[in-house]
Amino acid sequence: MKKFFLIILNLFISIIFAQDLQVRIVGKFQMDVPAVGPFSMTFNQTVAPGFFKREEKIEAERFYARWMMNEETGEILIDGTEKVIMYNKDEEEYWLQSPEDYFRLPDTSTDNNKTISYSFSSDDDDDTTPPKCTRTGGKNIEFLHGFKTKKWITTISMSEKKMVFEEWFVDTLPLKLLSDSLEFEIKSTFNPNKEMIESDEFEFSSNIFIIGLDSLTLLEPIPGHAVKINFLIFDDDDDPSMTASFEILELYAEPVDTGYYVIPEHYEKTEMD
Fold first, then answer.
1. Which neighbouring-strand residues pair with 250?
2. CA atoms lying within 13 Å on the CB side of residue 151
3. What is the pTM for the complete model shown?
């Protein structure tokens, strides 16, 4: 009961002080998949009461993947305005987007859509053996990017493949909760249909995978919040056939700077279809 009270008190204090603060999160998502090869996406997101800004930079290593994926873009939402500011840092251009287009789900039916999918399934369709889940760790403290974490290793094994999750969890992330709350608040002003609003975050922790599995081993969810995840898929080889990772590199609060939520003066305004 005392611990719950302290969490509520800290969140209440954070909300009060949030009126003069903005929360910045810097993170990185990396993936290496067949055919496409290695690529990464770095994001820099800052949110304050009435302001939201997010920049993303995608970088691929292979030539054709660079042509298809590489870009550096951003978006800005300001309470009291009617349009979302979108911009391309490579082209030094910006345009205004309606809330209807901004919140519309992406169309995955066209050939021009830049999406990548990778399935995890057994090659033997007749194999009805449920996956086996095991987990170790959670005892030793490791410091990562200033976070006090505990590392867990979760293995999900099937007849011909296995997934391995290396995860670093912290007990609580009050600033992340505050950032999510402020993001939801400002996006709600642009889109009254609140159930369609989702935070821009990659989430592929073992907790989510295990929920949907018919496993021989029942594992309790890891408590807390992941600040780093390494995800590996193995076939018959010792080397993984696919890897992915996500980590929070920076998470901090600073005084609100409204001048940060503007487009550089030399950017040209353009119209987008």
1. 26
2. 9
3. 0.81
